[in-house]
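Table 4 source record.
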Amino acid sequence: MLDALILEKAGIPAIPILTDAFESTAREMAELWAAPDFRFVMIPHPLATMTPDEVERRADVLIGKVLGLLQAGQLD
């Protein structure tokens, strides 16, 4: 999350992907970095028990969300 915030502050678009267990931490970090509306994508926690195929399927779903947020940011 912090890396994405720093990249965005430098003008480099970034969409962090984090598990839902860290949502409140991500929102607090965004507030601390003066970016309360910072966008990110959440996935269910945990990841450690997933098979490689499950991770790939989840990534296939997430790529559309990430690209959509990046494209929306270009229009702002």
